[in-house]
Automatic annotation (TrEMBL):
Family to which the UniProt record says this protein belongs: Belongs to the asp23 family.
UniProt source species: Thermosediminibacter litoriperuensis
Protein name listed in UniProt: Putative alkaline shock family protein YloU
InterPro entries associated with the record: Asp23 (IPR005531)
Keyword Transmembrane: yes
UniProtKB keywords: Membrane, Transmembrane, Transmembrane helix
Transmembrane feature ranges: 7-32, 52-70
A matching Pfam family: Asp23
Domain of life: Bacteria
Amino acid sequence: MKLYDRIILGIVLVLACLILAVVSAMAVLFSVKAFSLTHLWTRLEYYFYGRWEVGVVGGIFFMVSLWLLLSGLRSQKAPQALISSGELGSVNISFNAVQNLVLKVTRDMEEIRDVKVKIKQGKESLSIILQVVVVPDVKIPELTAKLQKAVKDYVESMAGIAIKDVSINVENIAGQYKQNVK
């Protein structure tokens, strides 16, 4: 679901909870004979019967509920990159597979403690964005240059896709923790 779908779903859920709370409270009041059902029905008929505003609001809620139901049922297709296209058909690779290739390269580097990978597709190539946490006492310019080359070469050789660029953002330097010896 997209962000605006989630926001609308949250609003609808809050309204549904409020309506359910009111209906539940009315059921409790009916059970203890606090007021009669005929009195309630007369009030509802007086306020809602024949009013076009009520129909519009009800129609809007009905359309929103159908929209949210259908948006929840739609399958989310994972983004893919085209490797090759020939007379036998096309070959695609998912961004998840490319991400796993990048993670393999970063796991082999001892200087990197943690990494997050984002992939953006261009017209004929991919851009890879890495957010890394490095170990202390590492030369960051040398490490990032080495990482850029390693990621670009490995993904291009294994997946057969062109990598436009590899951007690296060093988010943090992992802290060193001393253990207290007793």
